Amino acid sequence: MNAPSAPTLHIRRPADGEVLRSVPIVDGDRVRAAAEDLRAAQLAWRDMGPAARATWLRKWRGWILDHTDELTDLLVAETGKVRPDALVETTASCEFISFYADHAKEFLAPERVGAGGLLSLPKRLTRSYRPYPLVGLIIPWNFPITLFLMDAAPALAAGCAVLTKSSEMTPLTCARIIEGWHEIGAPPVLLHVAGAGDTGGAVVEAVDFVQFTGSTATGRRVATRCAQLLKPVSLELGGKDAAIVLEDADLDRAAHGIVWGGIFNSGQVCISVERVYVVDAVYDRFVEKVVAALGALKQGCRARDDVGAMVTRAQVDTVERHVREAQESGARVLVGGSRGDEGNFFAPTLLVDVDHSMACMTEETFGPTLPVMRVADEAEAVALANDSAYGLSATVWTRDVSRGRRIADQLEVGAVNINDVFSNLFAVGLPHSGWKSSGLGARLGGAQGLRKYCRVQAITEPRIPLTTKELTWYPYSARRTAIAGRVLRLAAGRGLRQRLGL
Ligand code: NAD
User: Fold this and answer.
1) Is 89 a catalytic residue?
2) Which of 175, 209, 238, 323 has the fewest beta carbons closer than 10 A?
3) Using CA atoms, how far apart are residues 438 and 474, in angstroms rounded to an integer?
4) Kindly report the CA angle at 230 between 393 and 175, in degrees rounded to 5?
5) Residue ranges of the Aldehyde dehydrogenase domain (predicted)?
6) 220 by DSSP, 3-state: which?
7) Contact 417, 424 (CB under 8 A)
8) Ligand 1 lining (C-beta closer than 6 Å)
9) Is the pTM higher than 0.85?
């Protein structure tokens, strides 16, 4: 009798449903063994310091760029992206490696801290950044490379080992990039495990810090488990990003930007434009321009196509349901509106006459649809944009940038792009964070993006000649307590605090 074969993931090409490759699922025991190996290797990785780690990171970046064609082909095959969308991932994501390789030494340098109070005046105070030994990255299927490198680069640069579980739908390109790490002979501090929720759950148990990117529902489960384990977790979750088009907007720019923001990667971007509010004065002209721009897009998997397939059939079903339910409630489809005959295609779609009673305006669609709603004015647009459980990002379209900034200040989201889409995503100096049900914590954001992978250690040392009796040591005496009281009373006066620089 044959031994039962190990459970396997069958990775299908979204463009035609054919099985591309089968990959064994990594079970809990193997996740634990991988974690042990990584922990052992991390000690030397931590001790080699940021400059030596940066050398390995740059070699890895070189390997990725040398293998761009191979990686892009694989990414197109397993995700159904069109080639230009895939190339954004395989090339632009190297920015994250460059940035953290270049700045890790500066970001990890111990920081001198001011005394802050009279009692610590005789001490030298230092804040020191010590890497978590093992970071777990759990990632979704929409950007298998970008969402891996955004976190792997700072975590590795910080001196952590990294255990990565990519999505069960798209494990191939991520696994290949991690093979590249080993091909260049880098220290064995980076491993990939393939599998679904059970494997992800085992990763959560095995690591010291969890960086999760995925749906809000799964994020809640992961956060609950991390709370039980008292384990730090950072969550990048779903979104329902609003675009606000004002009467003074450059309408050509707004229409093209919003079409790109809603349809790029077949709308499977956490910060896709998912709903559009257009003030009455320019609504008709805006819709006309969107009809023209959407209608001109070509869909398929040929080199000349603009819009590819969606990764999963289940996601196409969600998009179809949102469009159908909206139509049943009175919305009109002006462009697209249906799925393809084969493969995971859904036509780029424009919906109008929508409102907040419809799922297409309140739930994450994660597909190539643009529901556009007419609003009276700026105030109504802002109120509707904030009427959401999510708070990832938003866009504002106006020729008056100071007006854009003022509106940004009223929006309950982690990022606002004025007259553009996605521009915060590759701005490594800015944090990428979701508010409300869109997440907890942040990624990137310069030093913050690397220091989140460190535990902060407080160090004090004497800076005046040592005495055998510190003011606050046992045994207390009435005299010393009285002196301490007087000193503290004096210190409460602003004048002395200012003179001492407190
Ligand atoms: P998902 O939540 O279904 O899965 C994400 C990952 O979690 C997968 O690797 C999955 O195997 C794993 N997982 C599932 N159950 C788990 C468990 N119990 N413990 C640990 N891991 C588990 O999400 P998805 O469908 O793959 O991705 C789409 C979602 O991701 C969308 O909601 C999208 O908005 C979101 N997303 C967010 C960002 C962001 O930065 N905010 C970026 C990209 C995607």
Assistant:
1) no
2) 175
3) 51
4) 60
5) 7-459
6) helix
7) yes
8) 138-142, 147, 165, 167-168, 196-197, 200-201, 204, 213-215, 218, 221-222, 236-239, 270, 364, 366, 392, 434, 439
9) yes
